[in-house]
Amino acid sequence: MDWRKAVFWQWFAVATLLLLVxxxxxxxxxxxxxxxxxxxxxxxxxxxxxxxxxxxxxxxxTFQWFSMAVLLWFTEGVMRAYGDHGVSQMLALAEILLSxxxxxxxxxxxxxxxxxxxxx
Length: 120
Known about the structure:
By secondary structure, the chain is mainly alpha-helical. The chain has helices at about 5-30, 45-50, 50-55, 60-70, 70-85, 85-110, 115-120. The mean pLDDT is about 95. It holds the Pfam family DUF2069. It comes from Chitinilyticum piscinae.
């Protein structure tokens, strides 16, 4: 098993997660908040921080469950890309892209670290 690939996807997932956190914070606080001065929708960032420790430590189970949870941000991005206009629509497209990349990275890391490969 080539652990370099698994390590690459682990850190790619962590970087993408941090970019998604930064995007959501900037979006809801400064770039295009629902209300001037920011909105309570910024709290959508809090669940994104839950898997960070497990992902940094390379826990396969964290990558597995979070690959499903990240689909919530994908769904929000699709809905806001469809319903919003201007800057908010562009930010929604960026959220879609980051969530798809994060989903892909989590699944690839989980696949490369599956127990059936450990014996080979």
